[in-house]
Amino acid sequence: MEFMAAAAFGLEGLVKKELNQMGLEARGENGGARFSGGARDAFRANLWLRTADRVLLIVGEGKVLSFEDLFQLALSLPWEDYLPPNARFPVSGKCARSRLMSVSDCQAVTKKAVVERLKRRYKVSWFEETGPEFRVDVSIHGDMARLTLDTSGAALNRRGYRTWNGEAPLRETLAAALVMLAPWKSDMPLWDPCCGTGTILIEAAYQRANRAPGLTRPFACESWPCFPKQAMEDLRREAEEKADLGKIGMIGGSDLDPQALELCKRHIRQAGLGGRITVRQKDLRELTLDADSPLFLANPPYGERLSDRKNCEKLYRDLRALYDRHENCRLCVITAHTGFERCFGRRAAQKRRLYNGRLECEYLIY
């Protein structure tokens, strides 16, 4: 089977790298990385991918210039290889730069074609749709349609430890990417001086402990009769055995907001990391770590509202002072503020474009 590990723009290369590290041959493309494998590989990707949004099973692809073309393409695909007679199969869709721009019509045509295909194969005229869910997605870009089944269910950033997002949530997948892209060595302490509700800290701890991000959450494919139940249970058990929380080392964070810190502590406990991450209320202007060569990793406020801009720019100058107080430290910051380097007073050694939701950001490494 062929799969697509979907990802946010800018993270495709990281997803490809993660798949390669699993022993899967993958190639990056806009929107993610494509790989071939069996059901076991798809489940393993769901379990271990840190920077992907979903793992989609590609049922078929083809050029469509009309709704009839789309109907015939969907009708020609082997849906019965995956969907049992009682399957629930809602259809979602998206269209971009194509002749077929009505998403609702594309969804309706695809649903009709899948029903027709299953009618012919199962010799029934009505489907109750009371069984396991197989979410069908029709994606059309530049007149090329891709029809997929979503093996993940809830998006992969939903690890299960975060119950409230705070004012400026950072998706778990992006937080994991920031950690992976940082120059973080095994003997370096990591500190987030604007830790908020703790997402960066938890993702860093999971990576250091070799803890699978999807270890305690379910996936849609676990209810599919066409996927091997015992093999998936074995893979989950193997992942449990590989996790070693003793390897986490010095990871901590601070923030001025007491409410955010309470949520941070709750999320750390819910992530199974109680006692493993240091968190305290501290103004970063007064923060000094008693550690050699620490890595500071932060997602500070961006100052999107004009009323907040001056405070944010002062915070960036305070980050520079924090950087100067710590000899041989590294600092990594993600920001949508185009004047960050000017306020910080120094150009970054490395830059990378990333997206925090719809916001175009720069990831700066000092």
Q: Could you characterize the architecture of this molecule?
A:
There is one protein chain. The protein is an alpha/beta fold and 366 residues long. It contains 10 helices and 14 strands. It has helices at residues 12-21, 39-48, 67-75, 103-122, 172-181, 199-208, 229-242, 258-270, 306-325, 340-344; strands at 2-6, 26-29, 32-36, 54-63, 91-96, 136-141, 144-150, 190-192, 251-255, 278-281, 295-298, 330-335, 350-356, 359-365. The strands form 2 sheets. A 7-stranded mixed β-sheet has the order 2-3-1-4-7-6-5. Strands 10-9-8-11-12-14-13 form a 7-stranded mixed β-sheet, covered by helices on one side. Helix 2 (39-48) packs parallel to helix 7 (229-242).
Through-space gap between termini: 43 Å
Count of the domains: 2
Spell out the helices and strands N to C. EHEEHEHEHEEHEHHEHEEHEHEE
Quantity of strands, as a count: 14
- Based on CA atoms alone, the radius of gyration comes out at 23 Å
Helix content: 25-40%
Unreliable segments of 5+ consecutive residues: none
Number of helices: 10
- Largest sheet descriptor: 7 strands, mixed
The CATH homologous superfamily of the largest domain corresponds to Vaccinia Virus protein VP39
Q: What's the CATH architecture of the largest domain?
A: 3-Layer(aba) Sandwich
Q: In which order are the strands of the major sheet placed?
A: 2-3-1-4-7-6-5
CATH structural fold name of the largest domain: Rossmann fold
Strand content: 15-25%
The shape, in one word, is elongated
**SS content category:** alpha/beta
CATH class descriptor of the largest domain = Alpha Beta
Q: Roughly what is the average pLDDT, rounded to an integer? A: 95
